[in-house]
Structures are given as structure tokens and as C-alpha cells.
Amino acid sequence: MLIPAYFLNALLMILIPILLGIFLARKFHLSWRLFLFGGFAFILSQIFHLPLNALLAHFIPGLGSGGVAWLQALIFGFTAAITEELARYSILRNNLKEARSWKAALMYGAGHGGFEAMILGILAGLTVVNMIALHNNPDMLASLPADKLALVQKQLTAFWATPWYLALMGAVERVSTLIIQISLAVIVMQTFLKKNKSWLWAAIGWHWFVDAAAVLSAAHFSIPITELIIGVLALTSLMIIFYFRPISPEDDAPPGGENRREPIPLEALNFSPPTDKLDDSRYRNA
């Protein structure tokens, strides 16, 4: 039961964002270009995010593995927020100039969170394969140094001792994270819709708070309690998403955007009066 649950978890992490993209594309007639650029924004952010975290962990005591939880939450939460939101803003400003609507933000955010979920899903699947290989071939551990061997054995023990339902928590967390990422995209979109960069800082602040809360929860609470807290943050994010939803469809279809309607050709408009009525016109005796 445990192994199928682990594989199901990895599969759901990959499929959920794809299914969400299909739903948004069909419901709102949106281009997959938004989804792909959202994913590119995530990848771009990690090019700066991961080296920055490694650099800070090297120079700041207590920030690395097993470090002080509140310090990790404060600093790692901020680095995630600043790199991801600046990348999100940059792509919208430079590559998606036509995307200026609430609906576009939904697809864009789904791509950002979706690529993150799919990458983690692939890694989760590879982890299961590796754990199975190590379980069936313990001789593979013989070449490891003593310090790394102890760590790997600890990970193996924890992996096989996990209840099957906890093996699905990765997929549950990705659902919450997708909602949060979409809310962040909606907030950043306000920077362009309202022409006010304060919304970018609002997105950075919300992202910082969410990530810091998740790190602190993971350090002090069990997995179910941590996922419950993240779920509450996701519910709050859902409220943010619908708060910015336009009142009418016209409010969400700016000129030049992805929802722009094609103009009606003048030839299709018949303004010519019937010729048999011209003689009765008041202009006849003018």
C-alpha cells in the first residue's frame, strides 16, 4: 500500500497543474503561452534563489541544515519571496505585455505553481525509485562514508515507516501551493492594472509571510498540522483571488489584451437606405 501511495502522490503532483491548466484554458479561452511563461518565471527565479540560499547559509551561522527554525523562516522566506515575485513581475512586464486581466493572472499563476509542482513530482517519483533500489540492494550503501551512511539509513527508516496516507501529503500541499501561487500572480497583476508598484511589494510581503509560516510549522508541528496551516493560508489566498475578480466581463477585457475582441468590418454593417425609399425622403424637396 505504501509504494502505490508514493507513486500516486508523485503522479498527482504532475497531473493536477496540467488539469488545472486545461480547465482554465477552456473556461476562459486562455492561451497556454501564459502557463508556459508562468513556468519560466519559476525556473528563472530559482536560478537566483538557490545560489542565494546557499551563499547565505555559508556565511550566516545557524542558517544551514538543522539550523535555527525562526532564522530559516525569516531569511529563506524572504529570498523565496523576492526572487519569485521579481521574476513574476519581470516576465509580465517584458514578455507578456498583452496579458493585463484577472483571467490571465489565473493561468499565469497556475503555470508558475504548476511547474514547481511538476518538477517536485518528478523528483518525488525518482526518490521512490531510489528508495526501492536501496531497499532491495543494501550493498549499494557500502561505498558511502560513515557520516553520510548514517544519514541515508535514517532517511530509509523514515521513508518505509511513513503511514500510506502521509505519503499523499505532497500532492495535498501542491494543491494549496497552487492556490497561493495564483493569488500572488493576481496581486502582481494589480501592479499593471492599477499602475501602482505597491502591489508588487504586497505580493512580496504575502509570499514572505506564507513561506515563513510554512517553515516554522514544519519545524514545530506534525505533517498533518503543517498541511492544515498551509491549507488555511490557501483558503485566505482563494479569498484574495476572488476579491480581485472583476464585477463584469467587460472590466476584464482591456484593449489589446488576450481577451480583445476583433473589430466588426465596416462592410458587415449595412447603413445604406433602401433605394425605393429615397424618393420619399424629406431631402427630396430640399
The total domain count is 1
Morphology call: globular
Structural class by SSE content? mainly alpha
Quaternary: single chain
How big is the Rg? 26 Å
What fraction of the residues are assigned to beta strands by DSSP?
A: under 5%
What is the string of helix and strand elements? HHHHHHHH
Compose a concise summary of this entry:
The chain is mainly alpha-helical and 286 residues long. It has 8 helices and no strands.
What does the secondary structure layout of this molecule look like, with pairings?
Elements: H1 2-28, H2 32-59, H3 69-94, H4 102-136, H5 146-161, H6 169-193, H7 198-220, H8 223-243
Description:
The chain has 286 residues and is mostly helical. The chain has one domain (2-258). Helices cover 70% and strands 0% of the residues. The model is unreliable at 255-264 and 275-286 (pLDDT under 50).
Give the key terms.
286 residues; 8 helices; disordered C terminus
